[in-house]
Amino acid sequence: MSSPLSIRFDPALLARLRRRAEAEAGGSVSTLAQTLIDEGLRMAEHPGIVFKSGPSGRRAALSNGPDVWEMIKFLHEIDERGQAAVAAAAEVFGLPEARVRTAMRYYTDYDADIEGEIALADAESAAAEAAWITEQRLLA
Model's pTM, two decimal places? Predict the structure, then answer.
């Protein structure tokens, strides 16, 4: 359950928020404000994390890098563990190890969100593969 909060906005800022809400959040200024505040707090807590829009919605990513879920999925799937896993991820993604650790720290605080994004990506991949297999059978 949410709690009400009265905030006074600069008129120009409120106009921008309303325009963006109309375009992105189905017109709900409250929903958009809550999303942007949550993302802003997450970015303040985890420097190097940004949020990107895409077909699956907004998601956490490394600035100028991959989505956090992609990094975590890679770390789940490789054989290496510990420091070797961090080094392998850094090499594969072409990033310094510190950036890999940024994604890992974000995951420790928001693992349910990231696991949900991984599950969605896995489901979409399985559906695409099933469609391809069906097409191949049709063409055989």
Answer: 0.86
